[in-house]
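Per reviewer request, we include the raw input and output of the structure prediction for the construct analysed in the revised manuscript.
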Amino acid sequence: MGSRSLSVDVSEVGALAARIRSEIGKAVVGQDGAVDLLLTALFAGGHVLLEGPPGTAKTLLAQSFARTVALDYGRIQFTPDLMPGDVIGANLFNFQTSTFSLTRGPVFCELLLADEINRTPPKTQAALLEAMQERHVTIDGKSHPLSPRFTVVATQNPIEQQGTYPLPEAQLDRFLFKHVLDYPSAAQERAIIVAHGSRTGQMDPKSFGVEPVAARAAIDAAIETVAQVRLTDEVVGYIVDLVRATRESTDIETGASPRAGAMLAVAARARAALDSRDYVIPDDVKALAAPTLRHRLILSAASEIEGRKVDQVLTGLVERVAAPR
């Protein structure tokens, strides 16, 4: 690292991540890819969108993650009748004192689970935009700061399902990652039934023995370390080439923005630290290209007609763009 000293050694970041993974594994079977992206987002200071059919442990995963990292946790169940004030709060009139007082909404926390975010209309979805981008909210013209660690883990059902509203492109762009959860393998499904098949009532991480394993000071130190992970000129050039390739592809109507490239670089640094490395390699970028870019691209009409998927197009681009050796 030259003359710079890391806040903590990158091996400690990797060990911290391993403890978190192990603890989440007490409640959630499989979904290793989602856990890794949640960890990467935590250390990169980004938000995560989890998409998958009902019953694939999206909510339990987010709850378990919040418990292991000991962050102040909030949850909103998005419904068609939810109003913006139900998310950020409102100034309510107190008849006893004849004054207005602020009632803070559930957004005033450190880790917010936005459950089934696409079941509420865009007006309410947009209430989260300012919070996600600026980490503060405005109520009746007055700005109220949120925690500098404020992170949104949102879940959504596949957009084809009944009663869902597409997320606005501006909001999608606020998510560092979009991860698509799939059904578990046969062996994992068997393990899920063994672990969960005898339980009745609400399943929560505490009942599975999930405990906090990461103190806030350790997370802050890890985040500082991630910011110092080396990104060589060759890897920067590779990220630029990948992002620009999305704009030049005839399969894509709208490509990724420069902000997407910057976010991919931050995420690659975090992934390197999770792997106990103080430098980014091209494989970090390749592994994170799909979750970082898939929600920022709009396919061309021709690709849509041909039935092509965003992930197929992205895979082709990653294969074509030359990576540094």
